[in-house]
Hints:
Elements: H1 5-8, H2 16-22, H3 26-33, E1 39-40, E2 47-48, H4 63-67, H5 87-98, E3 109-113, H6 117-125, E4 130-135, E5 144-145, E6 158-163, H7 173-183, E7 184-191, H8 208-215, H9 228-234, E8 237-239, H10 244-247, H11 253-256, E9 266-269
Parallel strand pairs: 3-4, 3-6, 4-5, 6-7
Antiparallel strand pairs: 1-2, 7-9, 8-9
Amino acid sequence: MAQDFMSTHVGGAWSLERIARGLTHRAKGIVAKRPGSARLCVVCGESSADFGPYRGGWSFAPALVREVGYVAGDYDDCYCTKCSSTDRERHLQLYISALGILDDLQTTRVVHFAPELHTRSLIKDAKPREYIMCDVAPKSDEIRQMDLLDLDFADGSVGLFIVNHVLEHVPNTAKALSEIHRVLQPQGLAIMQTPFCLGLVSTGIDSEAARYQAFGQEDHVRLFGMDLFDQLVNAGFSYRGGSHADLLPNVDAWRNGVDPREPFFLYAKVD
């Protein structure tokens, strides 16, 4: 299943008409209003000569990470020089807008784990019925302290669960996925963007220096291979996303500073 992911896992629940309608959101509007500009941040709408690198860019990334085709964003084009949004926030905003997810939040209870500054603003502006932000180590009073391995929500009580670049940090992936599945209502959606690469399994990496060399970041505990997609399906989820080429055909990845290899990890709970 994993090897066919990019070509066969586009969920039928999202029609081409809906995707086209979703692209009239803010993301497409900004691109259309600023033709010819060099780089463009979909979050703040500002153009600039370039985006800022993450830790010096790809040339400074660990050799193993470069070798295995790490898909987690773009080290060279990470930060917006105007608003400091990251490539993962920009790509997620484009995907969410493309599928019209923001249109459906007014009646939805949304849980956002480890909420990013700009993404949380995007969700708040959509005025969901209830928006709960949580983190294992919250840095703000508006964020509830909670463990992804022991969620404090009733079964079937959440309509949309956002966990963006978090699964690579948790010690037990299966338990985390089980908890997300438990709290989602039937056909509830989960956005689970996660770094991955082809054919890599790592064990026994337990120092910060070794984790940085193996995983690209000291607080990552694993680097997923393509079996990640099977793990998500086997946990009781059905894929509803798609690739950048499928969902964002009119969005220039270079101009917007996003990694076109990163698909949209949108999944629906199935019983």
